[in-house]
C-alpha cells in the first residue's frame, strides 16, 4: 500500500534492483527489452525515484533553495517568479523559505536547505543580518551561493542588485527639482548596505544641489513595512518644523507614511511630498499615486538564477563570481510634483 520502490519493481520483473535502476537510467549495458519492461512496470505501479536517496548518491539534489525576507512583499514575490521561470526550464525545482526579516530564521532556513542537499542557494538577507557565518558555511560546503537585492559585499559570491546610491540620488534630485527644501529620509535599519547606499545617495543629492541636510529629518524606523512607515510619519507630525518632502526606503514604508499623513489632514504633495522604492502595484493604487524608483524584480530573479546555473555548470574551481547591476527607472507620479513644481 506504500510507495513503490526499486526493490518492488525488481521482484515483479524477476531481476535485481541494480539492473532496474540502470534500465531506468538508460544504461548502455542494459538491453532495450529490459529497459522497456522496466519503464512499463514503473509507469504501471507508479514508481517515483526517491529524491533523498538520489541526493545522497550525487551529493546534491535538483532543488535550488531560495531565501527571501518576506514572500508577501510584491517585489520578492515577483522576483521568485523570475527565478522559477529560469530554473524550471533547466530541470530544477525551487524550495522557497522566508526569514521574516529575522537573522535566527534566516540561519535556520539556511541549515535546513543545506541539510536537504540543495544544488545551490539564492538569497536576500534579512534586516537583522549583520553577521554572516551561516553564509560562509554554505560557501565552505561548496554549495553555489548567489545573493540578490540585499547583498553582503565582502562575501565572494555572485550578486545581482541595483545601483542603490544612484537611484536614491535620482529620486532626491527629483524632489529638489520640484522645489522642496526640507527633505527627510525614512530609513529601514542601520547596518544594512542597501540602507547605507540609499541614504548616501540622498545625502549626495542634497549636497550637490546646495540643499541643507537636517539630521532630525533622517529617521531610522527599524523595518520596511507599512507599519514602520506610519511610525515614521508619527515622528514627523510631532515636529515643530517637519519636512516638506520624504524619500522612503521602499514603497510599503512610503504608503504607510502616506496613509498616516492623510489621516492627519495633510495634502499630498502640497503639504508634504513622498517618493519610494520598488515600483510595487500598491504604489499606483493610492491617490495621488506614489512617485517611486521602479526596480526590475522579475529580471533580477531571472538574472540571479542564471548566474547560479552558470556556476553549477562550470567545472570545480573554474567559476569566477560575477556582480550584475540592473537599471532602474524613476516613475514620477502625483505624490511629488507630477502636476508642476511646488
Descriptive overview:
The chain is an alpha/beta fold and 342 residues long. The chain folds into three domains: 6-49, lambda repressor-like DNA-binding domains (434 Repressor (Amino-terminal Domain)); 57-162 and 297-326, Rossmann fold; 164-295, Rossmann fold. Helix content is 44%, strand content 16%. The strands form two sheets. Strands 2-1-3-4-5-11 form a six-stranded parallel beta sheet, with helices on both faces. Strands 7-6-8-9-10-12 form a six-stranded mixed beta sheet, sandwiched between helices.
Helical stretch tally: 13
> Looking at the structure, what is the overall shape?
elongated
Radius of gyration: 26 Å
- CATH architecture level-2 label of the largest domain: 3-Layer(aba) Sandwich
**Mean pLDDT figure:** 91
User: In percent, how much strand structure appears in the residues?
Assistant: 15-25%
Compressed to H and E, one letter per element, the order equals: HHHHEHEHEHEEHEHEHEHEHEHEE
**CATH fourth-tier homologous superfamily of the largest domain:** Response regulator
CATH topology of the largest domain: Rossmann fold
Name the helicity range.
Answer: 40-55%
Largest sheet: 6 strands, parallel
Pfam families: LacI (PF00356), Peripla_BP_3 (PF13377)
Protein name: Transcriptional regulator, LacI family
Domain HTH lacI-type: 4-58
Organism: Maridesulfovibrio ferrireducens
SSE layout:
Blueprint: H1 6-13, H2 17-24, H3 32-44, H4 51-58, E1 63-68, H5 74-89, E2 93-98, H6 103-115, E3 120-123, H7 133-140, E4 145-148, E5 158-162, H8 164-177, E6 183-187, H9 193-208, E7 218-220, H10 226-237, E8 245-248, H11 251-263, E9 273-278, H12 282-285, E10 291-294, H13 297-313, E11 323-326, E12 329-331
Parallel strand pairs: 1-2, 1-3, 3-4, 4-5, 5-11, 6-7, 6-8, 8-9, 9-10
Antiparallel strand pairs: 10-12
Helix pairs in contact: 1-2, 2-3, 5-13, 8-9, 10-11
